[in-house]
Specification:
The chain contains seven helices and 17 strands. Strands 10, 11, 12, 13, 14, 15, 16 and 17 form an eight-stranded mixed β-sheet that branches. It is α+β, with helices and mostly antiparallel strands and about 290 residues long. The chain folds into two domains: about 15-110, Sandwich (Jelly Rolls), CATH 2.60.120.10; about 130-290, Nucleotide cyclase, GGDEF domain (Alpha-Beta Plaits, 2-Layer Sandwich), CATH 3.30.70. The chain has helices at about 45-55, 140-150, 150-170, 190-205, 230-240, 250-255, 285-290; strands spanning about 15-20, 25-30, 35-40, 65-70, 70-75, 80-85, 90-95, 95-100, 105-110, 130-140, 175-180, 185, 210-225, 225-230, 245-250, 265-270, 280-285.
Length: about 290
Amino acid sequence: MGTMPRLRYKAFTAPDEVRVIPKGRAAVVSLDEATVARSEFGPGWRWSTDLAPIMATRSCQVHHLGHSVSGRLHVVTDEGEALDIPPDSIYEIPPGHDAWVLGDESWVTVEWTSARIVGVGPEGPGERVLATVLFTDIVDSTATLQRIGDPAWQELLRLHNARLRDDLNTFRGREVKTTGDGFLAVFDGATKAVRCAASMTRSARDIGVPIRVGIHTGEVEFVGDDVRGVAVHAAARVMSLAGPDEVLVSSTTSDLLEGSGLELEDAGTHDLKGLSGRRRVFRVVMPSRASSGE
């Protein structure tokens, strides 16, 4: 049940809430169901550097509808469309974009649709979300480094990182960090994570760098641009059990792969750091091994 509309006003000079965001601030007022924010983004502000760590997404996933009061904003969508939003205009920006302030004047805007969430992370601190965690690691990297020398190793590592990042993008994995000679990434689906792992293994083998991959699904906590939780340790432990060109998954992840068409084989029962009791681990059967097609 909504409340009856009544004659009144609220001033942005005395807002219900002021949110300080990197290089800016938002004054928020609410009139029952309606929430309106007047935001200022200073010169040099850019979504991907200033808000991405808080929002924990690759691009801004908010749908904006608002009034550009002063200053100019440049918007680029994930598809590559670009637009400058001038002062004294009404604008709409679909989800999936980056944006930055042009020139040395702050961009001042009034928004209705996204006012409740401007500058607020998708989960409060300590909020746990279900994710599939993937760890990769180059097998015998020390031996390879000693064999080919540092300059050649650095070049190989650059190539390895570029190829594996392509795979992460293809399967929409979120890179959390590099671990020196591997990646920690998270996915919102177990099947995507395992298909990405298989693709990464092939990419690495193509350039002569055997990797191993471990995957586990569980609750994680996003802290800034890092990810924490028992599931992260478990995925690392699963990876440590894998050999060259192998993708191992925990039984939790394997349960989520039903109907995916991916083939698994038993890789034994092991203690996984952080998880109680012994857990079964499964090896992903690579199509190249299962068929003579390659």
